[in-house]
Design brief:
By secondary structure, the protein is α/β, with parallel strands linked by helices. It has three helices and four strands. A four-stranded parallel beta sheet has the order 1-4-2-3, covered by helices on one side. The radius of gyration is 12 Å and the shape is globular.
Length: 91
């Protein structure tokens, strides 16, 4: 599985939009199954995904602390690409 983390120390550079578009396009291009993770406390990616009608890419609810364990589960489920939207900070 490939993991792509969209990160920036600054808020507002478009991390969430980029993560969402990369995941959708990867899925449409046949690079899936693709999973999205929102680790930003603002939760904008979660809100975006909840407003969609499409089921793919899948959305995984997790925390930064649980992420390593959840990544192992995603590998077991056959996820090929994981896109992570990160908080605007170095953590």
């Amino acid at each position: 599985m490939h993991v792509l983390a969209v990160a920036s120390q600054k808020g507002g550079p478009g991390k969430t939009t980029l993560a969402a578009h990369l995941a959708v396009q990867a899925e449409l291009s046949g690079a899936g199954p693709v999973a999205l993770v929102d680790t930003d406390p603002q939760g904008s990616l979660s809100e975006w995904w909840n407003s969609r009608e499409a089921d793919a890419p899948v959305f995984v609810r997790t925390t930064v602390e649980r992420l390593p364990e959840d990544i192992r589960r995603m590998v077991a489920f056959g996820i090929k690409l994981l896109v992570i939207d990160t908080p605007p900070a170095i953590t």
